[in-house]
Amino acid sequence: MTTFHDLPLEERLTLARLGTSHYSRQLSLVDNAEFGEHSLLEGWTRSHLIAHVAYNAIALCNLMHWANTGEETPMYVSPEARNEEIAYGSTLNPDALRNLHEHSVARLDVAWRETSEDAWSHEVLTAQGRTVPASETLWMRSREVWIHAVDLGAVATFGDIPEVILRTLAAEITQKWTSQGTGEGLVLLDEPSSTRYPAAPGQDEVVVSGSLAGIVRYAAGRGSDGVTSSTGEVPEPPRWL
Question: Most exposed among 11, 91, 123, 232, judged by the fewest C-beta atoms under 10 Å?
Answer without folding.
Answer: 232
